[in-house]
Amino acid sequence: MSQPTFVLVRPQMGENIGGAARAMWNFGLDRMRLVAPRDGWPNQKAVAMASGAGRLLDNAGLFETTADALHDSHFVLATTARPRGLTKPVLTPERAMQIAAERIAAGEKVAVLFGPERAGMENDDIARANAIISVPVNPEFASLNLAQCVLLTAYEWRRQTAEITHETVEMAGADWATNVEIEKLSEHYEETLEQAGFFFPETKAASMKLNLRNLWSRMPLTRSDVQVLHGVLRQMVRWKERG
After folding, report:
1. How does DSSP classify residue 178?
2. CA–CA gap between residue 161 and residue 8 (Å, rounded)
3. What are the distances in angstroms from CA 27 to CA 22, 23, 152?
């Protein structure tokens, strides 16, 4: 699938380059470019940190300048905490990746710039971008680690382009109870509670039974749950009879 290229501009520590590669691969991204890494390239600390994402480092493009790294891009996004006096659209990571997905689907090449760890990108780099990505962080502590910023952006890309199941239940081999099984459970409890004199006074019995049935319908019960609840009630009756 077509995807954006992540460009690390003058990254300082090999560990952060490796962490960025790992974050990218977590979300299915593998196009990395490096602009003048401070400690040279290749970098063994980056390889160690990348763990299973070392293939990104093997295939990463190495460039001397930001302009060289962006030579084939149609649309460029720059991650920075503030626009630094430049007039630019400022986007959240979510909106930025929405736009990136739309442009890539239209056949364009999109690049995302990430600045050096200590001070971020210079205005010369930001000026090359069409828009800015700004993460809505705590304004009193807005600095993000390079790999963290890559991770956030890559996550938003994944959200925009992959089929994601937002909620699921681990059934652990169980099956959901059918309506018939829940109906039988409800009848079992009603009959037993009736014999125990639970539905009192008689004028409130109908509403009490209705509330009880509503309780069962609200509970996501498995067949095992139903069997346990039947067993609990039977054992309580047996215990009462023995007493």
Report:
1. P
2. 22
3. 9, 7, 10
Cβ atoms 100, 29 nearer than 8 A: no
User: Cβ distance 61 to 90 under 8 Å?
Assistant: no
Question: For residue 169, how many other CB atoms are within 10 A of its CB?
Answer: 9
Q: Please, is 188 exposed, middle or buried when counting C-beta atoms within 10 Å of its C-beta (0-12, 13-18, 19+)?
A: middle
Walk along the chain (243 residues) and give the pLDDT tens digit of each residue. 599 999 999 999 999 999 999 999 999 999 999 999 999 999 999 999 998 899 999 999 999 999 999 999 999 999 987 666 788 999 999 999 999 999 999 999 999 999 987 777 889 999 999 999 999 888 888 778 999 999 999 999 999 988 878 888 888 888 999 999 999 999 999 999 999 899 999 899 999 999 999 999 899 999 999 999 999 999 998 887 776
Q: Residue 97: CB partners within 8 Å, gap ≥ 6? A: 153, 156, 157, 159, 160, 161
CB burial of residue 42 (10 Å; 0-12, 13-18, 19+): middle
